[in-house]
Amino acid sequence: MQEYSSYKEKMQTRLQEEPLSNLIIENNGQIIGTVGFYWEHKPTRWLEMGIVIYNPTYWNGGYGTEALTLYRDLLFEKMEIGRVGLTTWSGNERMMKVAEKIGMSLEGRMRKCRYYNGTYYDSIRMGMIREEWEALCVTKG
């Protein structure tokens, strides 16, 4: 129980310091997931974002695309960052597709560095720089 208390305390402190670091995704009043970011290297403003949708019932329903689009926009609007990144693995085709849909580009592929269920997978780095986001906003606006 002490581990949970420690985790909860750390999470509350982080949310007080960086309120945008973890947000819930709701559908009809029900929490279905979260979006969040972490600093790969805060002094250089290197930020990575991610998403978790807990229930597979909500996968492939557009919730991830909508949530990540809104979160990407929020991060660029509210934070002084030049880039938003996302790291996944080659076994997660849905995540790679969502990243592409929201305007991210493939920036890196580390081959066979993730081992899961007897198979090696690539680590995939996707990202979008501020100038690409601004151009996207002009196109949409």
From TrEMBL:
GO MF term list: acyltransferase activity, transferring groups other than amino-acyl groups
N-acetyltransferase domain mapped to chain residues: 1-127
Superkingdom: Bacteria
PROSITE patterns from the UniProt entry: GNAT
Pfam families named among the record's database cross-references: Acetyltransf_3
InterPro entries hit by this protein: Acyl_CoA_acyltransferase, GNAT_dom
Protein's name according to its UniProt entry: N-acetyltransferase domain-containing protein
Species this chain originates from: Bacillus cereus (strain VD014)
